[in-house]
Amino acid sequence: MSYRQTLDFLLHDWLHADTLTQRQRYAEHSRETFDAVLDTCERIAREKYAPFNRLIDTEEPRTVTEADGSLRVVLPQATHEAHRAYAESGMLSAAQDHDIGGMQLPYLVEAAANSFFGLASISMGSGLLTVGNANLLMMHGTEKQKQVFALKEFSGQWSGTMCLSEPQAGSSLSDIATKAIPDGADFAQDPLGPRYRLRGNKMWISAGEHDLTENIVHLVLAKIPGPDGKLVPGVKGISLFIVPKKLVNADGELTGQRNDVALAGLNHKCGWRGTTNTLLNFGEGQFPVNGASGGYDGNGAGAVGYLVGQPGEGLRCMFHMMNEARIGIGMAATMLGMAGYHAALDYAKNRPQGRPITGAGKDASQPQIRIIEHADVKRMLLAQKSYCEGSLALQLYCARLVDEQRTGTPEDADEARLLLEVLTPIAKSWPSEWCLEANSLAIQVHGGYGYTRDFPVEQYWRDQRLNMIHEGTHGVQALDLLGRKVRMEGGRGLTLLAARMNATIERAIQQPELAEHANALAQALQQVGAATKAAWATENPTEALANAVPYLQAFGHVVLAWMWLDLACRVAPADTTGGAVTADRRMGVLHATCYFFHYELTKIKPWLQVVAARDLTCATMPEAAF
């Protein structure tokens, strides 16, 4: 079955996307308009992205030195054409209001449509950071900031970044050292927002420099010194600033002057080679900007930035973009896994090797069979299918929750908010780990050829490997899940999630072929709940969080088992299937569900044992003993 058939099944037969058209915001849409968006994105991905996936892997971004000593990034022409086609499709503003040029498209359909680009060429990019940047400004920016910056990003005229990490701080945002000082006595009167001068360095900034758009809008975390001139320690001292690459006036027109933002160099990673990854210097005087105060040194050094929101609330604002990016990375991981799975499936169907084993052993005189006829190859393909299609179901389920949060009743919107809080760490991390395993299995299915560049699966693996660290490592996500999300608001989010799982269990237990799985999920859910309580029994964070990653792994497996059981409930009654639920689809879902419950869900016991025991083996290992 094609990817599009799988997507249609999940969107329409499982999540019933067409019911969203009953909401006022989406009333002008229909199944036909949704399909038209999917058709357009599938075509652009097929024509402008997929043919160049290997090209952008081998022709990495490079720099040339300009006459003024600055570095300019050069990208392949294919990247320019792909970006242009994507921007012209309107997908950058797909979810926005009609009156600012948007489609008012449900996020569920937007996410599904964007998945084609991840499948075709993940590192060529399709505006993830730009859209997230603009969405943050629409939520937290002033009307002028929305008009000048966000709308230019939605149009594709400008692009956006997220500048958090620093060379010395990494994920520890409380330790960032980038500093922002008020720019002159009239700093608060600037129409674009309170004006500051920033100085510092940001590392690992994706799309931090390129020539795809006429301007780049950096969203930068920095600290405003206190009255004593010192930076406030911890995350409470962090503020958020708009720092454009090129300066603009109050009407959003380029002034012709560069801001004091300079590319220091490119990071060359094992994957995602088509995306520029940069070290940026802010305010070091390479492009001095004369202004009211003359910046840090009176000679124009200091990048001009405009405060977003209130001082000290930068991280709260940035989390809007960070959570959006985390779900985006989860989808990227899912689609890289899916690309490898489809490549492995095609190879297995066409590669002859070996002969069937019968009671008399192998008969070398018989013709070879295709490798998909071997049980172990089917095992590897089933594993990939269960990881990738299960992850896709989770990503789309989360996207559906976003629509519920935006357009549901106040009660439903609040439930969706809490469910997203709990599910976001899993939606980011689970595909990053297990779709990587899917990519590894795709290489294995290809045998020796899988390790060559004659086939795409080795590139998929390299691209995928980065997603385990993109937007926060497993450790960061695990601490978020066990340390905050399952306990927030008295554990209400976890209770809501358990209620939804139990509803699926109740439906499944009525189906004879699913009853065993339903009981297994009920037991697994009970084990997660017990481990959560046991971890926090002493209220000692050191003990509770010592095994946060095994907890995340177990929790994620339970969530994915729930996804598969819910899908199985949709296809189990053979006499009531229809739409995209063909006989092959039914068998595919039921076998993948069976695989996941028999081979994967059984892994959670040892993970949860160390969580419940508050095992400190890792935490107490002496450094000198390594």
From TrEMBL:
Residues 312-480 form the Acyl-CoA dehydrogenase/oxidase C-terminal domain. It holds the Pfam family Acyl-CoA_dh_1. It comes from the Bacteria. Residues 498-622 form the Acetyl-CoA dehydrogenase-like C-terminal domain. Its cofactor is FAD. Keywords: FAD, Flavoprotein. GO terms for molecular function: flavin adenine dinucleotide binding; oxidoreductase activity, acting on the CH-CH group of donors. SUPFAM superfamilies: Acyl-CoA dehydrogenase C-terminal domain-like (SSF47203), Acyl-CoA dehydrogenase NM domain-like (SSF56645). Belongs to the acyl-CoA dehydrogenase family. PANTHER family: ACYL-COA DEHYDROGENASE, ACYL-COA DEHYDROGENASE-RELATED. This is Acyl-CoA dehydrogenase. The lineage of its organism: Bacteria, Pseudomonadati, Pseudomonadota, Betaproteobacteria, Burkholderiales.
